[in-house]
Amino acid sequence: MVQSFINARTLTPADMRNPKLAAEIAKQLRRFHQVEIPGSKEPQLWNDVSKFFEKASSLKFDEIEKQSMYETISFKEVQKEIVELKELAGHLNAPVVFSHNDLLSGNIMVNDEQEKLYLIDFEYGSYNYRGYDIGNHFSEYAGYDCDYSLYPNKDEQNHFFRHYLRPDKPEEVSDQDLEVLYVEANTFMLASHLFWALWALIQAKMSPIDFDYLGYFFLRYNEYKKQKEMCVSLAQSYLSRSGRGGHCC
């Protein structure tokens, strides 16, 4: 089924680092987040993570090698991480918006001549936390090789935030507003790793696609563990200064 044809090229992960394109993605994402969709406006992140966990923690693989790898996963540990991160993120009171939830380079197109950018593929779209949509997008800077050294630094993130918060006057965004979004995005980036790690386990069992989904679980979960201390510390420091409490891990 063809719904429409867009005369544009698909972005590469490297394109997302381009300051001009990053600014345009931020503007388009702001517009997307302002869409009002009828129905429940409950954020879906933790509901989805809970469903994924339930399925992912009770799988059985026919292949002995896959089953052996699967059995090395401590689901008790994973569940503890989910509960603690959910509690911490809850203290941030992040705005709930209609979110794309899968803003990787393959879901962004650009017509270079007309300088028009398009967000496509809304199959994961739902109401969700603003910080999750942005943090998940930043994780996709790593590309298909999952090179997380490419995750945007604070200056690159602030460039994105300025154009997201004030597309008309990005230079007028306050330091306080930048900090709020920086904490949100980097806390929910952790949730993104947990979400896609659990998703990958289910795909390892169900998907007909020839891809190492089991290996992908470990890539995402290990990156979560690597980034956890820094991001949790960032959020706790922010919460203690703003008087909102919040303790995790």
UniProtKB/TrEMBL annotation:
Belongs to the choline/ethanolamine kinase family. InterPro entries: Kinase-like_dom_sf. GO terms for biological process: phosphatidylethanolamine biosynthetic process. Pathway: Phospholipid metabolism; phosphatidylethanolamine biosynthesis; phosphatidylethanolamine from ethanolamine: step 1/3. One of its GO terms (molecular function) is ethanolamine kinase activity. Pfam families: Choline_kinase (PF01633). Gene3D superfamilies: 3.90.1200.10. GO terms for cellular component: cytoplasm. It comes from Citrus clementina. Its EC number is 2.7.1.82. PANTHER family: CHOLINE/ETHANOALAMINE KINASE (PTHR22603), ETHANOLAMINE KINASE (PTHR22603:SF66). This is ethanolamine kinase.
